[in-house]
Specification:
- By secondary structure, the protein is of the alpha+beta class.
- The strands form two sheets. It has a two-stranded antiparallel ribbon. A two-stranded antiparallel ribbon has the order 3-4.
- About 6% of the residues have low confidence.
- It is built from four helices and four strands.
- It has two domains: 58 residues; 92 residues, no CATH class.
Length: 187
């Protein structure tokens, strides 16, 4: 294959296709010998900067005029609805500090009797509730144990999160890992 004739160009410097380093399966690969012109690159960057400066010179005065016409806090229209903020706290900054207390409370509720004063519902320990449900279920006497059978392996989980097999436990978070390590070291 013959090389195309070399013609000078203002945007790029083209010296024709060049042979690349031979690689297995690609012995006859070639690449174009094109280099970008430094003048064109610098000129393009200058045009971009000039465009940004002109755009900023137009936009910032308009923004200041609009800011003074409608200051923050005033609604743009009396018909516009006011912004409703969600109740606080919106997020927990350190959830790992409250998570052990939350889990302890959940374990206490699951394993005790009580009455919810807000809703009026009464609750019993989870094991007793599961026994009551099991008495009503129709299960064959020799049914295999496990998650496929009501009251199977899941009953063992009712003793709390720590009694679950590791593959079923929720993943712990970093702060809780540190607290558990400190609690284990102090025992």
């Amino acid at each position: 294959m013959s090389q195309p004739p070399h013609k000078p160009h203002t945007l790029v410097h083209f010296e024709g296709p060049k042979q690349s380093e031979p690689h297995e399966g690609h012995e006859h690969t070639r690449f174009e010998g094109i280099d970008a012109s430094v003048k064109v690159v610098i000129g393009s960057l200058a045009i971009i900067w000039l465009t940004l400066i002109i755009t900023g010179a137009i936009v910032f005065p308009i923004q200041n005029i609009l800011k003074h016409e409608n200051p923050p806090g005033n609604l743009p229209s009396p018909m516009a609805p006011a912004r409703v903020l969600p109740p606080t706290p919106v997020i927990q900054v350190r959830p790992w500090e409250t998570l052990p207390d939350l889990r302890a409370h959940e374990e206490e509720v699951l394993n005790s009797y009580g009455k919810d004063n807000t809703t009026g519902h009464t609750h019993v320990p989870i094991n007793q509730a599961m026994d009551a449900v099991m008495a009503q279920l129709k299960i064959q006497p020799n049914a295999p144990a496990g998650l496929t059978v009501p009251g199977g392996q899941g009953r063992d989980f009712a003793k709390g999160l720590s009694a679950m097999p590791p593959e079923y436990q929720r993943p712990t978070i970093q702060g809780e890992i540190r607290k558990n390590a400190q609690a284990s070291a102090s025992r």
